[in-house]
Structures
1.
Amino acid sequence: MTLWSAADAAAATGGRAQGDWNAEGVSIDTRSLRPGDLFVALQAARDGHDFVAQALEKGAAAALVSRIPEGVAPDAPLLIVADVLGALEALGRAARARTDARVIAVTGSVGKTSTKEMLRTVLAAQGSTHAAEASYNNHWGVPLTLARMPVETRFAVIEIGMNHPGEIAPLSRMARPHVALITTVAAAHLEAFDDIGGIAREKAAIFEGLEPGGAAIVNADLDTTPILRDAAEAKGAEVVTFGAKSDQYRLVSARLSDDRTIVQADLRNTPVTFKINSAGRHFAMNGLAVLAAVEALGADPGVAAPDLARWAPPAGRGTRETIQLDPGEESWTFDLIDDAFNANPTSMEAALEVLAASSPNNGVGRVARGRRIAILGDMLELGPNETELHRALAGSEHVAALSLVHCVGPRMRALFDALPEEKRGQWAETAEALAPRLPGMIDAGDVILVKGSKGSKVSLIVDALRKPGWGHRPHTRED
């Protein structure tokens, strides 16, 4: 099915089309390009023009370029524009303008991608749904997501992120959402802001792009909720709240087990129970926000509530799996909670709560009882108070339920030093330095949480734990 004809793409961008081509998709990466895609030669770590010839060889319908690259035939199927990123933005705006889709934009310090994927899951059962891939939420991810949106889309879910002030508003104006949702406001990217109030004001900029009569979905449980509410009301939005303090979409309880969360809620005075197949109070809150958004979009929250059970977190965002420690002993397994994609104080607290609620397996391995063990990497971009924010994790009420906390990175040294001696595991400067020690740290029956900012590279710990045969030397310390 044609997504962009040469004529339509040229009209949208003001560019010059060579050839009469039809594109079925839009791609910025030759590694994931599919035949029939329009390849967009963005300038990033590498100049996309260097890959145009390869894209055409792989079956790209055409390439969006600012010049004819070396090695590409002068009559090749191209869309030639003055600026490639500007043209991608123009494609995104044109795609948004030509559809009757109900659009929701999602942002927040924690939970953007999980909430976006929950929305994709539940809305897909109620109509054709288009949503961003992965975490495509920045200055090129948002226009790319919009440019990929089919005309017949009924629901579109656009994730919007930020690292610095001033990023969210222009992306929201491009998306023109009917509903804007802020999951939460927390100390993430704090180094770019004076305080958490500044983060809240930047998140609230998502309301700048709301369509007339639009709805703003706001977390009622935050110290910064008044900032969010005031910003929404200033744009004339209908404010809808969710959370334990909400009188609209109220969280009554969230009961955590090893692999699920049972949620009781009150949706505008109607009691509802729903299940999420992953543990975490934060997932319960995200699910509640999703139900509020579903109703604001004109879909049915009563249908959506049971469909939340069909969602599962993506890799690196709280997924849980059982790993065989010794292939010769079927019962010698441990559980791994992979949350290695991102971290800030709020998401760390949520992950520690999940670990504290988990159930180790007793009576297997060399240690008499299963343990709850955290392997925590540095939290990045926290600004001048980063040392204190790391140290403060030692005061979490959930640490009491853990057996050991291992720490990775120079910032996590502050937590390591603040931990009670009986909870203090090992510290390493890098994930690479800790990985060889794992066979002496893990035993059958344990539940292991690995969490840290992506830049801390604790995903290397996850990879090492998954590697077959690494665990033939079980932990021998009796505790």
2.
Amino acid sequence: MHILKKAKPNILVIGDLMIDHYLWGSCERISPEAPVQVVDIAKETTVLGGAGNVINNLNALGSQVSVCSVIGSDDNGDELISMLQSIGVDSSNIITQKGRKTSKKSRVIAVSQQILRYDKESKDDISIESVEKILQSIKKSVSSYDMIILSDYGKGVLRDELCRGVIELANESNVKVLVDPKGSDFSKYRGAYLLTPNKKEAILATGIDIKDEESLTKALLKLKDECDLGISLITLSEDGIATYDDKLELFPTVAKEVFDVTGAGDTVIASIAFALSAGKSIQETAAFANLAAGVVVGKIGSATVTLNEIEEYEASLHKSTSDAHIKSFSEIDAIVKRSRLNGKKVVFTNGCFDILHVGHVKYLQIAKSFGDILIVGLNSDESVSRLKGPTRPVNIAEDRAYLLAALEAVDFVVPFSEDTPYELIKMIAPDVLVKGGDYEGKEVIGTEFASKLKLVDFVDGKSTTKTIEKIQGSTC
């Protein structure tokens, strides 16, 4: 993840842009004019849809994004350009075509349910003149891109001539093209580096009923051969991602909760493009895309995902390295804020944890049971020495933090240099503050910032001091 956080690839998205428009309200009566519901609109929201959702995902990951498309010369087109400019996306390669309608999909939602959707758009192929303008524009800048994405929503922008022209220009400049395909005929994508069809799309395109690994392999090989792909890939929904380079490889999904799969395909192709641009292997890329999809399906509506969210999600699955769980004050502040927005209960405890033993582990397991996220404040070496004496700590802070972070019960470790974690507790304002049972009747630092205090008894006979005494006794 560290390498990905440094990456800022320049990625071009070409495809069908649209505006997703939402009318939110309540419904309490039926119209006297007709047997239809009357919705009292409370608010309106708009977000980028179609290829625009791919752009949003790339932008959230930290990419530099440019876009190329064809829209109408209308109010919706002006609104769409404004939305792109507001997030810093280069829209200079967007062409307006006379007589074309910019896509806008309006949804009426009441009591969290979609009541009605109405669309205003053109679905005919763009003109050959528009194709030529796009290709001329891309020819001048193609070598400046790290990756090109073709996001096909079947609205006419990615007609055959444009797809073939873009792929030819990109291949001449050794720029990979990734395609989120549409329809049953993938021939116009021939020469792309990889496609991201889902299982249903792959079945339609290959005519192979995918029902086991053998048929999956045949479908992947057919796509690879007929479309002349660098790597063949099929997304398998809850079963993850399958790829074929020189052999079949399966990457299981890592979604914990699925609330909405809207836009998950956009997240997958955006994360694949981002990771490949950063130099990751296809195996690392597929794993990264699965993590990104796991985050986004846990959200409502077309959503995006950030690298920090992916890192936190990976940490929650306990599939990351220990150092990914060790955070600074500023990092844990951002994590806590995001966690609260997602309704998570934050638990905090602290200590020296010099020589990790079973008493520590059981204490932390109980602490974690009080909420969703356990944050452990860890005394620095200097503060341990001030509290425990000049012969302590036995283990340096870096080692203590790494061991704590490896525990399943611990979500994050935050080292602090003061004698008490007062400032850290003040910043986190935990839902539950946990201390040892020996604090019964005593003042506990930071309780004024916590919603609740819990005292947990230690395991009898288990302590760092007793462990040290035993070691010293055995060496006498």
